[in-house]
Design a protein that fits this description.
26% strand, 8-stranded antiparallel beta sheet, single chain, 2 domains, two-stranded antiparallel sheet, 1 helix, alpha+beta, Trefoil (Acidic Fibroblast Growth Factor, subunit A), binds 2-acetamido-2-deoxy-beta-D-glucopyranose
Length: 223
């Protein structure tokens, strides 16, 4: 009698536990990314990625000559909070229009690289090869659009909320587009190299780069 009660109870607990797991599972669609106005970030629009900290926090992200020759261009942060940088698009791996947190994205600058700035590469962010001289993984350009999988592993970035601040995010490279791949999983931070704030992968004990999204073109229906 006692045993059967215990058995019944454990079944009940198991049922409850799996039920709550089920609830967690169904409600785990990540939250939409929000811009500085509280609007949902969309893959069809262009945004500036700018420091969430005004003043000494610096400005927006832009392109700068690489470390070994001019091309490929590296992703940097401009020093002044008056500079929003170059606008870009965020494209989720599954072509969804609504851009969500914790979802693999391509980050692509909306520039035509021409004249002096011409590099024969797409202005699509990717993690560069390990730089043994500095011990760093820089964020550079030249990635290939889309094609989620092993061959594009270094081209994917996610945005994760920082604490409970709405609209403030950190950029993370921790791709989910290839389950069987050995991969890097780090926050994106900044590193001063020759007076330039280059974006790099950072250790967990180093600060991530807190960012906000400023729409490059205001919507006609904006409040
Ligand atoms: C996303 O779009 C690309 C290009 O049109 C296509 O090749 C790919 O299959 C699409 N992926 C999904 C998940 O719909
Ligand atoms: C993309 O994935 C999200 C969940 O991460 C889902 O809500 C959305 O419907 C998907 N979009 C497409 C076009 O498959």
């Amino acid at each position: 009698m006692k045993i059967s009660l215990a058995t019944t109870l454990s079944f009940l607990i198991l049922a409850l536990a799996s039920n709550s797991l089920l609830v967690l599972g169904t409600s785990s669609v990540p939250e939409p990314l929000l811009d500085v106005h509280g609007n949902k970030v969309e893959s069809t629009l262009q945004y500036y990625i700018v420091s969430a900290i005004w003043g000494a926090g610096g400005g927006g992200v832009s392109l700068h000559g690489g470390r070994n020759g001019y091309c490929p261009l590296d992703v940097i942060q401009l020093p002044s909070d008056m500079q929003n940088g170059i606008e870009l698009t965020l494209s989720p791996y599954n072509n969804s229009t609504i851009v969500r947190e914790s979802t693999d994205l391509n980050l692509r600058f909306s520039v035509l690289l021409s004249g002096r700035d011409y590099c024969n590469e797409q202005p699509l962010w990717k993690v560069d090869n390990y730089d043994a001289a500095s011990g760093k993984w820089f964020i550079t350009t030249g990635g290939l659009d889309g094609h989620p999988g092993a061959e594009t592993l270094l081209n994917w970035f996610k945005l994760e909320k920082i604490g409970n601040f709405p609209g403030i995010y950190k950029i993370v490279h921790c791709p989910s587009v290839c389950e069987s791949c050995v991969k890097l999983c780090h926050n994106v931070g900044r590193s001063f190299e020759d007076g330039v704030r280059r974006l790099v992968l950072v250790r967990d004990d180093e600060p991530a780069f807190p960012v906000v999204f400023i729409p490059a073109t205001e919507r006609s229906t904006s409040v």
